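Thread amino acids onto this structure.
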């Protein structure tokens, strides 16, 4: 049976995250392996070409944001690549069970790196509800007038052990509406 590399990496990342949570040993050695899914670290692969991994600073900032989103829990990331540097995968993990939304695209460093005026995504919060919103203001007008400036990617809310998720949002739903749906649902489950 032929291995599907596009399936192997997500499975490996899910395995790593699942095995890392909740053990004292994981807390002491919370980090990724040097290879996953047949890929080596991006740093090791770029060094073969005499270059540096230009994602380290961005990933460190993202890990700090992820840790902050999980109340200071230990977090880690690793970028992986194939021999040709055409297959690039960045994996993130956090040693916590309390979920909050975050986005690797919601910080100023990524905006700077992509030469954008603002980050491509942001997390909007209202009470216990939160949504990841994608900004499309950097898309040229030539894409047509029907394309919205923003799109809600996913939403969730957590209160007293109940999590309300909206993993997929129709383009016609704005962030305020989605946040209200989450908040109202939370009020129903945990008034």
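Threaded sequence (191 positions):
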């Amino acid at each position: 049976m032929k291995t599907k590399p596009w399936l192997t990496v997500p499975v490996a990342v899910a395995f790593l995250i699942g095995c890392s949570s909740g053990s004292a040993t994981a807390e002491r050695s919370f980090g990724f392996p040097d290879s996953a899914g047949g890929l080596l670290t991006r740093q090791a692969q770029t060094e073969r070409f005499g270059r540096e991994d230009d994602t380290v600073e961005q990933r460190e900032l993202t890990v700090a944001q992820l840790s902050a989103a999980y109340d200071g829990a230990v977090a880690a990331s690793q970028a992986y690549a194939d021999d040709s540097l055409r297959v690039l995968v960045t994996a993130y993990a956090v040693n916590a069970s309390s979920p909050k939304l975050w986005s690797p695209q919601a910080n100023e460093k990524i905006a700077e790196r992509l030469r954008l005026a603002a980050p491509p995504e942001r997390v909007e919060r209202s009470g216990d509800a939160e949504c990841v919103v994608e900004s499309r203001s950097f898309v040229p007008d030539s894409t047509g007038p029907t394309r919205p400036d923003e799109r809600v990617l996913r939403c969730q809310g957590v209160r007293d052990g109940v999590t309300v998720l909206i993993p997929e949002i129709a383009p016609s739903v704005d962030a305020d509406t989605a946040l209200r749906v989450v908040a109202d649902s939370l009020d129903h489950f945990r008034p």
